[in-house]
Structure formats: C-alpha cells, structure tokens
From TrEMBL:
It comes from Pluvianellus socialis. It comes from the Eukaryota. One of its GO terms (biological process) is dermatan sulfate proteoglycan metabolic process. Belongs to the sulfotransferase 2 family. It is a single-pass type II membrane protein. Signal peptide: none annotated. GO terms for molecular function: sulfotransferase activity. The lineage of its organism: Eukaryota, Metazoa, Chordata, Craniata, Vertebrata. Its EC number is 2.8.2.-. The gene is Chst9_1. Keywords: Carbohydrate metabolism, Glycoprotein, Golgi apparatus, Membrane, Signal-anchor, Transferase, Transmembrane, Transmembrane helix. GO terms for cellular component: Golgi membrane. This is Carbohydrate sulfotransferase.
Amino acid sequence: YPRQHAPETHLSEFNLTEIEAMLGSYTKVLFIRDPFQRLISTFMQGMGSSPSFSSFVQDVLDTGQHNASLSWKPLVSLCRPCLVQYDYVVMFGFFRQELGHLLQRAGLPVDSLLPEFTDTQVQWTYSWLSEQMFSELSLQQKKQLSRFYRWDLSAFPFSSSLLAD
C-alpha cells in the first residue's frame, strides 16, 4: 500500500477508503485456534496468576470481553471476520497441510520452507489436556465460557471444541 506508515499503526487509524485499498492489496491470512485451547495455553504459559485452571477461568469470566487480554479475547473481536474477507483461514493443528497449500498458491517452494510439524501429536495432546482441564470446571463455568466464546464458535469450524456442546 503506497501510504507510509509505521509498523505499529492500527488499521482503525485509516479512513474507510484507505482501509479498503490496503485490504484489497494484501493477501489476508487468519490463524485460528479453538478458544478453549487458547485458554489452556495461556494458563500453562503462566500468563494468569491463578493457582488452578478453574480459578483462572473464573478470572477470565469476571474480567469480561471488553477488558479481556489478547491471549483469551474472542477471535471475532480481534480479527473481525465479518468485515475483513480473509483469503485463507489456517487452523491450529493443521499447519503442515494448510501452510503447504498456502505456500504453493503463493508460488513458493513448499518443502524447503516448512519446518517439521507434529500436528497429530499436538492434536492428541490438546485433546487429552482439554478433557482434563474441562473436567475441573463447574457446569456454570462451562456454560459461561460457551457464551463468552459464542461468536467464535459460530464463525469458525470448532465443531470438536468442548465448548461447542
């Protein structure tokens, strides 16, 4: 896009005409991850100060969506998929397959650029971990989390998410 801007410039700082021109000139890729897995990852990385996963989830719920950390804020509020037409949506757990396709579409050599992914192991581990962490939550917390992430669950194919039930 021809207008000079600093890397930290937010899209909202441009007018609608500039935004449309910029978005039309880029290939837009969105990386998504099951919201419950994002919560687990944030908790496991020690980004929450809570002693247990259940108390961490309660802190997240008490904070609300408007004051939520970027680590667990609903994706729909971060990436605006209803306003921005993404060219590609890449789901966590399918990186090797999807990034290979993306690189191929971009005309780049696939094999030499892709790192080694262990998607199957990652999916199995997160599936097991999700079930363990989910069992720690009260029924009320599960319902509140489903409501907290309802737009993500509607917008993206997280059909195997424990929150989708």
